[in-house]
Amino acid sequence: QLADDIAAMKEKIKAIHEECTNTKQELESQISSKRRQIQLLESKISSLDNPEDADSTIQKYNRRYEELLELQKKNREEMRANMKAVNDEIRNAMELVKKYEEYKKKTVEEVKEYLERKEEEIQNLRLLDS
Question: Is the pTM of this model over 0.85?
């Protein structure tokens, strides 16, 4: 009985030790994360304490903003040019289709007239033969 109690106590101690180790690792991780947050905040505070750094940061972001605006303008102009080119191509294609339809209609009319003339000639020849 005493040996069983000792074994049970050893298991309990082992489980508690593992739990303590896991808790310690978790707390160390949280502490490390909080330290990084504190360093970031200290960096921000020091930049606010130094107006020259803040001004240079503002200027840097203003330059980047202007670059992005210029890029946006350039992209819009390119898109407009591309859209105009596509519209022109569509108009040209539609014009070609229209011309082809007119040509087709004219050709069909010419073929009909030709066939009618030939049928008339055949009728005249038949009348002459009879």
Answer: no
